[in-house]
Amino acid sequence: MDKSEKQQALVVMVKNPVAGKVKTRLAASVGDEKALTVYKALLAHTASVAAATNAVRYIFYSDLIERNDTFSDTDFRKYVQCDGDLGVRMDYAVSIPFKNEFKKVVIIGADCPSLSAAHIQQAFDALDSHDFVIGPATDGGYYLLGMKKWNRWVFASMPWSSPELLAATQALFESKGVAWKALPELTDIDTLEDLQHSNLSAII
Question: In angstroms, rounded to a whole number, what is the distance separating the alpha carbons of residues 34 and 56?
Answer without folding.
Answer: 32
